[in-house]
Amino acid sequence: MSDSSAPATPADLRSVVAGATLPATAEPFPCVNPARTQEVLARVSLADRDAVVQAARAARQAQEKWARVPAPVRGQVIGNISELVRRNKEELSQAVTRDIGKPIVEARGEVQEIIDTCEYFRGEGRRLYGHTVPSEMPDKQLFTFRNPVGVATIITAGNFPVAVPSWYIVPALLAGNAVVWKPAEYAAVCSWAFYELFSRAGIPEGVLNLVYASGEETFAGLDAALGEGVVDKVGFTGSSVVGSRIGELCGRHLQTPCLELGGKNPMVVTADADLDTAAEAALFSGFGTAGQRCTSLGTVLVHESVHDAFRSRLDTLTRQATVGDPGRTDVVYGPMINERFADRYEGFLNWICDHHRVLGSTATGRITSANPREGFMGDPEAGLYYHPVILDGVRPEDKVFTEETFGPIIGMASYRHLEEAIELANRPGYGLSCAIYTNDPRSAFTFRAGINAGMVSVNNSTSGAEAHLPFGGNGRSGNGGRLSGIWVLDQFTRWQSLNWDYSGSLQKAQMDVGEVEADLEFRLA
């Protein structure tokens, strides 16, 4: 096992297009360990907009040949990726922990998600089914086929730097597409490791291209590539604001992107709920990965009859939770992913109002020797560590109620009846994930029917995905596209129909259809 506490030698990382490494830049971007901000893990040469277009052109050139590879053989390549990741699981997990400060236990789970995704899709190479459809005419057959869309540009965030890319890239490759992947530049080391494993699985050059670039250069390059017609599908995981821009851009080119965006994920706790389990789930949902998941808990809506009892349990659990060095196996969460997220989180803390009761820790803000967290593990001065915050008494008009707060902060509010809880849960306009804790099946199904989220959990947390279940949201959380399972294939294939008439004459649909004689006036005596 590699030691996450060992100092890393900075690597020089550059984009790869059609198997060739792009030139280094004069001022590379420093990729920093957020748990020890003085440790530079890599220096990343960020490409410009022209490189994004260049990568799309290379992908276009390679895609047709890749699409002609039989799908079961492409499935074997996906199986090779699974085996490579399995054999390098600990090294890749440690890279994730160093890059973004995710606790090593969570990082191992994230890498396992790649393996699970590959294991699911290795078999889909033998199940890219079309249909045989009966015709309304004799001597005629109808068929449907799944064809790859072509070139997919995939832009992913850094909070799940290897799992989420696999959700896009694995099915895209399996279906016969070529890919241009733009990862988060601050998670460059684990992204490079991910690319290296994939590139050794039997993928031809040009079918998978890696582009390190800033957001604005990527957007400009994507605009040009769409205009040139060398990108056929865009997949994006990130903020709702950027997702809206990408959706608008793709719409101008008559494309529908797959957008997996932010969330303000509610958890409803009913009067009959198991409060101990619900509090444990709220702790994991709200503070795992330091609250930096798209599925992180936003607001807990607790029935007024158990509000105080639940608050006491959650406050106690949160105060007891270990925060600190992500290399330890007993920490609930580590640092903020990157300085930009720490700065933004500081702004969210300004949304705390006088009517909020602040719970969960010995203080708020950044954890330092002057602003300590009881039970902190490690050196708080070394990284971007923040106190967990529970805000009781949030109101529907509060920003902390309506807006995504990417960080270790959750709100609490009371409700009187389930219909009110559902209305409050839907009010922010996001629709990614949600949960309800109840022992009443009627409450569970009423909640499911009324909530606008794409994913609903009953007696489980708002976070947690499985490789064979659809993942995605609605409203401010996405445009209805789904990742994972068979559903993601609709993002990376297009249906083609074939009608084959072997009657020897022209048969015209809806006009030459045979008629059946019937006595519809007949009535039983």
Automatic annotation (TrEMBL):
Alphabetized Gene3D superfamilies for the sequence: Aldehyde Dehydrogenase, Chain A, domain 1, Aldehyde Dehydrogenase, Chain A, domain 2
EC class, as a word, reads oxidoreductase
Tell me the active site. 260
UniProt EC number = 1.2.1.3
Q: Which residues form the Aldehyde dehydrogenase domain?
A: 26-497
Oxidoreductase is among the record's keywords: yes
Keyword list (alphabetical) reads: NAD, Oxidoreductase
Spell out the subunit comment.
Answer: Homotetramer.
Instruction: Report the family membership.
Output: Belongs to the aldehyde dehydrogenase family.
Protein's name in the database: aldehyde dehydrogenase (NAD(+))
Source species: Lipingzhangella rawalii
Q: What is the lineage of its organism?
A: Bacteria, Bacillati, Actinomycetota, Actinomycetes, Streptosporangiales
